[in-house]
Write a structure and sequence with these properties.
161 residues; alpha+beta; Lipocalin; 2 helices; 34% strand; globular
Length: 161
């Protein structure tokens, strides 16, 4: 009886192993084994989980969708105080209503904050921004952005209607 019992146990073990192998090889959702506690980063040697792409546009994409004035909405009628932004890969181009142009290279561009450095500045007055001037842009509301140029006073851009 013992030999028959041992044979049955061996067959049962083989059956379990075969079932597990078939389950692991089957198409569909993978079985995930994790030694990670909820709310804690990945275990040592494991890559971090993939992040879902953001569905929220970057700050520069938001700015590029409209016209912006320095200081207040009252300036939306003053061509020298109204700007548009063109987003082009790793650069942005600011144009005001008077024809002045500033091109900046993007250091980073998130939903709420962005940073650039001046590449080229062409102002009719000759008051061009120096190459390399760093600009930090902070979203303060849906229609307001604080601009902090290095070495100068900060100012606010407001979205024109």
């Amino acid at each position: 009886m013992g030999t028959v019992m041992n044979a049955c146990v061996a067959v049962a073990r083989l059956h379990i192993v075969a079932c597990l192998c078939m389950a692991l090889a089957a198409p569909g959702p993978a079985l995930a084994v994790s030694n990670q506690r909820p709310g804690v980063g990945p275990a040592p040697g494991q890559p971090p989980p993939a992040q879902a792409p953001s569905l929220t546009p970057s700050l520069f994409a938001t700015i590029a969708a409209g016209r912006w004035a320095i200081g207040s909405r009252g300036n939306c009628k003053n061509p020298r105080k109204v700007y548009t932004l063109e987003l082009g890969g790793d650069t942005i181009t600011w144009r005001d209503g008077a024809g002045n142009v500033d091109v900046e290279t993007i250091e980073y561009d998130t939903e709420d904050e962005s940073r650039t450095a001046t590449l080229r500045s062409e102002h009719a007055s000759g008051n061009n921004e120096p190459r390399g001037t760093v600009w930090t842009y902070d979203k303060t509301s849906e229609d307001s952005v604080r601009v902090r140029p290095a070495g100068k006073s900060e100012f606010v851009l407001v979205k024109c209607p």
